[in-house]
Amino acid sequence: MTSLNQISTKYFERLFITKNNKSDERKPRVLLVDKHTTSILSLSYTQSQLLEHDIILIELITNHQNLKQMKNLDCIVYIKPTADSINHLVKELSQPHYSKYQVYFNNIITKQNLEKIAELDDLEVIVRVMELFQDYQVINDNLYQLENDRDDIIDESNQLVSLLLALKKCPIIFYETKLNIELRKLGSEILYQINLNSNNNLFDDVNSNLDTPPVLLILDRDNDPITPLIYPWTYQSMIHEFIGIENNTIALAADANGAAAPAAVTLSDKFYQLSIYLNYGDINDKFQTYVEQYKKETKQTSVINNNNLQDLKKLLTKFPEFKKLSNNILKHLNILTKLDEQINHQNLWEIGELQQIIIGNLENYPLIKKKILPIINNLRIYTIDKVKLLILLMVRFPNQQNDFNQWINQLNDPTYTQPPITKSQHLLLESFKLKKLFPHYNFEASLSDQSNSNEEGGIGGGSNFFNKAKINTLFGGNHSNKSENNDNIYMQYTPRLKSVLANILHHQSVQSSSQFTKLVPDKVNNQYGNYDGAIKDIIIYFKGGITYEESRIVYELQQKYPSVNLIIGGDKIINSNDWLNILYDKVNDLPQSGNNNQVLDLL
Amino acid sequence: MSTNSPELRRNKRVLGSPFKSPVKNLANIDAASPSNDVPHNNSNVTSIRNDIDHPSVKNKEIKPILEIFCPICKESMISLNQLNQHIDDEHQKTDEQNLSPEPPVVRRELQIDLLNGDKGFSLSIDEGRKNGNENIRAGLKLSRDANPLKVSPSPSPGAGARGSLRSNERLSRNHWQTPASGSKCSIEGCNKTLSVKQGIVNCRRCGKLFCNVHTNFKVRLRNGPDSNSIPIFESLKYGIWSRVCRNCYNDKLDSIKIVEPKVEDLTGTFKRIRMKKNEDKELMRNKIKKRFIKLVELLVDEDVKKKQRKSQISKWNLFGGSDTNEPTVLEQAIEIVGHDNWMEDSKTHNCTICYIHFNMITRKHHCRLCGSIVCDDLFGERKLCSIMVPINQLLDKLKNLNYGANARSQFLFLLLNECSIRFRCCINCKNHLLYEWKQSQQAKLDLNSTDKLVPLFETNKLLIILKDQIVRYMNRFEYLFQKNEATNGDEIEQVREKLLVYLKDYEGCSNQIKQSFYGRVNNALKLRPEFVDNERLINNVYRGSVFFLQDNLVKFKLLSDKLSELTQMELEDSKNHFAQIEGVQISKNSPTPIGTPEPRLTKKQIRELREQLMVMNEQRFLVENLIDDTIKQRKFDELGSLKENKTELIKRINELEKELGEFGF
Ligand SMILES: [Zn+2]
Ligand SMILES: [Zn+2]
Ligand SMILES: [Zn+2]
Ligand SMILES: [Zn+2]
Ligand SMILES: [Zn+2]
């Protein structure tokens, strides 16, 4: 199993652990970073880790003109080889503030830039130059995220290439064809980068022990616009949905007892690491045990207060651990309280179940309609939840236009819905109703299994690229749409990703389905010939946003197939709000046609 | 070394030849002796540096040398000679092995490859890759930024001939275990008796017998290096898909696990480029310096003449005609720079440095040292492209150059008086001229710059040394402890003592930082005002030392306690000895002498409690500082829990002080 954390650890050693045995020649060090490497480093390493290795200052390289001269310090430079960062580096070199410099790049540096640096290192302060390949952020052990400030496809492909190099893998590239030019551009750009850098020998030592070529699977969020709208019920997903995770930190509002301001809390503790995939019930149980354990140990404290010296000593040595433990308990207590609040405020027990029933087609339409009506008419239900439910109904039962029209009206009516839907929401609903937003999206085809579905769900015409029977055997023969958690009503839905992956892993090939276009780097061709066999290594890149739920799916599959390597990532990690905002932008960009006049009339 | 047929040997050399047409040079190379066959190439290598001023020579003769690679492993070679040696040393053996079974066929195969310069016949791919190849990369990296949408990859070094050579081969079965009645599956715990129904399958790799279920795995294999060895994993396309046992499959999976992510060390390449560039710059600097010396001589001479003329003119007013001299000076100046370097007015429209377009206001000027046409940028509006420099300013900084007779005779006069002699100098030339001077200035600056922090860095140096010792002895301590549950005699005790001494020293250094850089304000430690501009740095150093001390004191105490528990169970007298040492430690380290000890606490206990107390106090200081920080920076990170920590700490400190009674100072 490939572990992104393990790679980060190795790179940490490369960057910060000096192999110089003579401690009297070692100087404390300054770390110069740019904004790109800052976020990469802060996601993987803590400041005390850095302190431990005598990194006593961290500075932004953009700030070089304000640094203080300190020749008693050595310097580690870790930057992305962008023109901007390199310009700052050469300026620093022309008037170096520190003694010796070790320069690391987190991606491939061009020959020109290397020469530029050499040219300006007059004073020969640089003692080491190295490329590491870390131009991506590690979120979970199997989940990475690219930095996408700019809409720059070359940068995007460079980042992916750095991931491939770190993993030492040169893959066959598959991208989803469906009319998305962006994916095709990205795919070809990566192919080009790989071929070019193969000529530079950079890809020489990759794939060295792999019997089968790895696969880079580029997926399009637009081919599954539904998954981000379904409320998640596992810990990490829920935190992102209801609180929001940014760079592995969350902003928790102050608790009632009044710590002054909202505090940013880092999510990296062991309890969190072990709980990210647990469902809501299990996480609460686990937390209880955690608290019990703490109580048990602190009870010993009170015993100690009765002058038992031997125990007191033991306690004191444990004290730092206690401190950490109690902080951690407090943190997760706050998180769980917050989640509970949200669930109750939003009536999510009810909404969530209804979402699952609709999308899983667990009941027939008249029954569902009976359940929907009181929700649509309920003033207390959040507008946004009504919108999400309606979208699900529209993709699941596209023929019920009359009902949809009526419900859209009720969502516009302040006596039923408070506040009424916005113009963007209105447009979005109309677009889903008329299948205008994703004309090629076919829910049927994206569902993992519809053996249980009746005609009402039928959209028809979609190409079923996977074999239901096979998937059934693959996933233990569960009937209907049920996943492993088939006893849990809140986790019936499985994202399209699962069927895509199951299909590949089981079918042992990707190109059999018309949905993907294949690009083969020369390196792969030379090594494997025209390979058409089993696939054991899949690196997934979700363009347009990935959900934590999907990374959990990958984790589950990985547990099931230990001999397969799965890594997943995306250009951003989205929750339902992020996705809706993206969708609003999309509908507002749609060409306004006759039907939209109706919409405007309704408004 | 020479078991190969001469023909093959020759072909190899041709393959490695740097020349475009192998046939032409065939005889040339063949005629030479194998040990030292291409002397002219060697001489080129040594002449790279000398020829640097003649780019034409450089391009023609040196470039091919850099393009010599081993055709097998792609290692770069300086000369054909080295390549021959390399092929003999590195690849001979494997070649032979490979060739021996079917010599004629193989030879033909090889010849085809040899003539086709693109194809290699990599046998030891891994070996070749390990050696890395900076030259290749350095050369090709140039193209990295080329138009990214045009894909024109040349075939990468693959396993062309190899595949066809090997694909028909059968995997060796010599090592196969022969089935006997009642043979059992070799997987531990399987226990199935092998039969037609259960399966009787030899693992293609280890050769042992297994049941069907436990051989349901496929990997790619090829034969090992000789007929007795078992097949080995081979992921390239000519590896044969083979059925293997679960054990072997797991071995395979282990081999895939990433041990080291990719790292490219460019230090060698970088230093080579830098050396080249610095040599070029050095040459340029020397050139500019020489011109400067000549120019100064010319200008001083001219100045002297002018003065003489002036006095003459006042006397012989009628003959006054200085006009004829002016062009001569310019001509002489051009002569110094060199006519080739003196840029032509008519062809230049933009400033060489800032690229501004020349017009009536922005006029063209020639730098008198390099001949470039630049703009005048006295006020630094652009890039300070050029100014009229008074020569005494330069002379003052360049006192030790080998000036001409005129300049030397006027030197003091020029330095001490207002200087009217000026010349046009561009910023680049100024930098070239003053390069050494700037460096010496920089060095002076370096010496003075960190005065205030010198004690901090000195102490930190000690901390680093001590830290290494502590880590080393701590590891040893833990190791001895685990190795032998009972007391390990003298060594563990020695290690323990050493560790204690180092920890004490470390603590001492840490305290020293505290005392030199912090003061107490309202009972909390505060950085002294004179150090605030280095606040982050000092805090980090101190914090780091306290963290390290805490971690290791805790670890030390745990082990030490366990050790003393064990020792207590040992002989009584060894325990007494132990306690004696403790006593010594206390009197050495406690600033106040110990009064009458209360019976309820032993010396050892007092010492330990005091250590705890110390740790707690450090922690409190630390937490207080953190709280200050967070409030100051308005980050409010974990402010709540920090405050809580502080309360807990204070509580604990009070408890400890109570416990210690009069010893809780
Ligand atoms: Zn070689
Ligand atoms: Zn085996
Ligand atoms: Zn068996
Ligand atoms: Zn200019
Ligand atoms: Zn010049």
UniProtKB/TrEMBL annotation, chain A:
Gene3D superfamilies: 1.25.40.60, 3.40.50.1910, 3.40.50.2060, Syntaxin Binding Protein 1, Chain A, domain 2. GO terms for biological process: vesicle-mediated transport. Pfam families: Sec1. InterPro entries: Sec-1-like_dom1, Sec-1-like_dom3a, Sec1-like, Sec1-like_dom2, Sec1-like_sf. PANTHER family: VESICLE PROTEIN SORTING-ASSOCIATED. Belongs to the STXBP/unc-18/SEC1 family. This is Vacuolar protein sorting-associated protein 45. The lineage of its organism: Eukaryota, Fungi, Dikarya, Ascomycota, Saccharomycotina.
TrEMBL record, chain B:
One of its GO terms (molecular function) is zinc ion binding. InterPro entries: FYVE-type_Zinc_Finger, Rad18_UBZ4, Rbsn_Rab-bd, Rbsn_Rab-bd_sf, Znf_C2H2_type, Znf_FYVE, Znf_FYVE-rel, Znf_FYVE_PHD. Residues 1-20, 30-51, 140-179 are annotated as: Disordered. Keywords: Carboxypeptidase, DNA damage, DNA repair, Hydrolase, Metal-binding, Protease, Zinc, Zinc-finger. Residues 33-49 have a biased composition (Polar residues). The keyword DNA damage applies. It comes from the Eukaryota. Residues 345-434 form the FYVE-type domain. Pfam families: FYVE, Rbsn. Coiled coil: none annotated. GO terms for biological process: DNA repair. The keyword NADP does not apply. This is Carboxypeptidase Y-deficient.
